[in-house]
Write a structure and sequence with these properties.
single chain, mainly alpha, 20 helices, 75% helix
Length: 448
């Protein structure tokens, strides 16, 4: 064992993670190996193994995390239920005639998907497969088309039922149900601002999102309205089954997630898509996603255990609390740190590392923990759209048909305005915190 100051331990652990992440090794192994090696160095074998074991064991007994596999299963089943194609076509018939209409349809469709799936990879994949080629072949600017898909698909990690909120809330000692409700208005505002940007941009530069040719425009008839309402009914019913039961206090999030799984299966039966092969595929995919989440969660939890046991948490706390400019300067520093981490580390690693460290600091600064937590989650929207990590960008690039000749520069150029919109939304939620806090305060009954 070596005597090291908390400052040196903090530098070794945080610096080690940043350095090893750049090598391309999986984040779980990077964080776990740093925690193990530094723990052995300063605590010795026995204490380190005790810290790691106790943290792993505590995580496995955390009941709210049962919602992760349940929401994952629901999302995979819905992805193959058949509701997505009908809904997109119905929205296209309604909005395709306006300038930028296809991009607007994509954002609206992505918002509805976000409230059904809760998994970014699924949302971005579906949007890319359904919307990208129609936009490009109709003369849409590639950056506008790809930016709309990435931004709309990324809403899936914010709008409930979001896996990120399920993971974040227990770490911060918050109610998952209240975080779900707190995310509703920020998610809707982001979606509305995305649509507004597309409409304004295409009004100024019509060539970026041309409307349909006159010979392809058909009247919006009563029959089309009925088709639109019928295609909207399944996702609305699913949203009510999950979020409605949580808001009304009928069931907590974990049980509501199980209800959502049942509703998703009923939808596959109603659309004639049910098969035991689908259940098998959804179960395997759920195991893969859940194992990924739990592995990273456990190793990050162990990392934080070593970090805090060495006294390094106090170092970070003192650094942030001593920033000149008062509590808002300290909060701004936290948000900048979260943004910078999002450039290099996957969101789940960020959540499990920063939340146990930053949550006590935010409470000391006098911020509402729910509001502060949602601000961090909104901030993390940018992590999916800002390289070099940028999972949404890579999912789109990997899913896009090769024949379109899509370049990475097109996607990066396209997401920049949407990242700026997220920053603007953060400012709005800072000035008007009720955007986040109003709906959770109206909840009825149990919210955990």
């Amino acid at each position: 064992m070596i005597e090291l100051s908390p400052e040196i331990v903090a530098f070794l652990m945080l610096g080690g993670v940043f350095s090893l992440v750049l090598t391309g090794f999986p984040i779980a192994f990077v964080i776990g190996s740093v925690a193990f090696l530094v723990g052995i160095l300063i605590f010795g074998t026995t204490t380190t193994f005790h810290i790691l074991y106790s943290r792993f064991y505590a995580l496995t007994l955390n009941y709210p995390y049962l919602a992760v596999p349940l929401f994952s299963f629901m999302g995979v089943v819905l992805q193959h239920s058949g509701i997505t194609k009908d809904l997109y076509e119905s929205l296209y018939e309604s909005l395709g005639r306006i300038k930028g209409g296809l991009a607007v349809v994509t954002i609206v469709f992505g918002t509805i998907l976000a409230a059904c799936l809760g998994v970014i990879a699924a949302s971005v994949t579906i949007l890319t497969l359904i919307a990208l080629e129609p936009m490009v072949t109709r003369g849409y600017d590639r950056s506008l088309a790809t930016g709309s898909i990435v931004a709309a698909g990324t809403l899936g990690i914010l709008i409930p039922p979001s896996i990120m909120l399920v993971v974040y809330a227990p770490q911060a000692g918050l109610s998952i149900g209240q975080m779900f409700m707190g995310a509703v208005f920020p998610g809707i505002i982001l979606s509305a601002l995305y649509v507004t940007y597309v409409l304004v941009r295409c009004h100024i530069s019509p060539e970026m999102g041309p409307s349909l040719p006159p010979d392809q425009i058909a009247d919006f008839t009563f029959a089309k309205l009925i088709r639109l309402l019928k295609s909207l009914a399944p996702p609305v019913l699913l949203i009510l089954a999950v979020l409605g039961t949580i808001f009304a206090g009928i069931a907590p999030p974990t049980e509501a997630a199980a209800l959502g799984c049942l509703a998703a299966i009923f939808l596959t039966v109603a659309y004639g898509k049910f098969s035991w092969e689908l259940i098998r595929h959804a179960s395997i995919e759920t195991l893969r996603v859940s194992a990924f989440v739990v592995m990273i969660a456990a190793l990050c939890y162990a990392f934080v255990g070593v970090f805090m046991s060495a006294g390094s948490g106090e170092v970070v706390s003192h650094l942030i609390l001593s920033v000149p400019g008062g509590k808002w300067a300290s909060f701004a520093m936290i948000m900048v740190i979260v943004f910078l981490l999002g450039l290099f580390i996957e969101w789940i690693g960020i959540v499990f590392i920063i939340v146990p460290i930053f949550s006590p600091i935010l409470i000391k600064l006098g911020f509402n923990p729910l509001w502060a937590g949602m601000m961090i989650c909104i901030n993390l929207q940018m992590a999916f759209q800002t390289p070099p990590m940028a999972m949404s960008i890579f999912v789109l690039k990997g899913t896009a048909p090769p024949g379109l000749g899509l370049a990475m520069s097109d996607i990066i150029k396209g997401v920049i305005p949407f990242v700026l919109i997220i920053m603007f939304t953060l400012v709005m939620c800072t000035i008007f915190p009720e955007i986040i806090t109003w709906l959770p305060e109206k909840m009825i009954g149990p919210s955990h």
